[in-house]
Amino acid sequence: MGADYEHALDAFASGLLATGGRFQDSFLPFQRKVAFYGALNGLSQVLLKIACPGVPDFYQGAELWNFSMVDPDNRRPVDYRHRGELLDWLRSRESEGRAALAAELAREPQQEAAKMYVVWKALGFRRDHATLFSEGEYIPVAAGGAHPDCVVAFARRRAGEWALAVAPRWITRLHCTPPNLNSCNWGDTALQLPSGAPQKWTNIFTGVTGHVPSISEILRDFPVALLEGLPAHEWHPAASSGA
């Protein structure tokens, strides 16, 4: 009786997942939408893990999306060669234009290169500003406007060094049309920067330098943002642009 039931259940599941089946045809559009929002949430978590106080903890092989369950399913051999090749590809593409690479990855945040890019750039920035992240203040940054609860932001500050992390949350409230980030309805949501914060910032993911405008502008070209504060004497308007 048990074996018959198990075989019947297996056949039922296989039938549902059969290519071209009615269930799959109706389910896949929903799955793609959930995957899009899930990837955005995942990228937010990666950025927060790297930029928050403390030591970023990465489980083996977690530079890419991992859909396995916890122990023992996640204790599989890590394909470091593949990760190295992917990192080489990102370096090569970035040398051709960081903004173009960020826009390409943002069009499909579910791809493994998107997570690797956030890990690579954010950890590299943290390494290059080690004292800022090990000794700097943690300053919560509030937002105002239409959707202040849908963004998590904070600054790290030490002497004249500033970094600003911006990560979306509860994104389904913004009624986005996947995979278009520009479709997310942030309205007039904007950050309320602390006193003394720099006026100009560089987004390490897109390479764009400018004022910190509305959230819709900050997250227009990439799902998350890590911004480096730019001292006034280093601001060159002719060489920079908006966001």
Alpha-carbon Rg, integer: 21 Å
- Shape, principal axes of CA atoms: globular
Largest sheet: 6 strands, antiparallel
Helix share, percent:
25-40%
For the termini, the CA-CA separation is 64 Å
Number of helices in the DSSP assignment: 7
Order of secondary-structure elements: HHHHHHEEEEEEEHE
Output the structural class.
Answer: alpha+beta
Strand order, main sheet: write it out: 1-3-4-8-6-7
β-strand number: 8
Unreliable runs: 235-243
The fraction of residues in strands falls at: 15-25%
- How many structural domains in the coordinates? 1
Mean pLDDT: 89
Secondary-structure topology with pairs:
Elements: H1 2-16, H2 22-51, H3 80-95, H4 98-106, H5 112-128, H6 130-135, E1 137-140, E2 142-144, E3 151-158, E4 161-168, E5 190-192, E6 200-203, E7 209-210, H7 215-218, E8 225-230
Helix pairs in contact: 2-5, 3-4, 3-5
Explain what this protein looks like in three dimensions.
With 243 residues, this protein is of the alpha+beta class. It has one domain (32-239). The protein is built from seven helices and eight strands. It has helices at 2-16, 22-51, 80-95, 98-106, 112-128, 130-135, 215-218, and strands at residues 137-140, 142-144, 151-158, 161-168, 190-192, 200-203, 209-210, 225-230. A six-stranded antiparallel beta sheet has the order 1-3-4-8-6-7. A hairpin with a 2-residue loop joins strand 3 (151-158) and strand 4. The longest helix is centred in the first third of the chain and has 30 residues, at 22-51. The model is unreliable at 235-243 (pLDDT under 50).
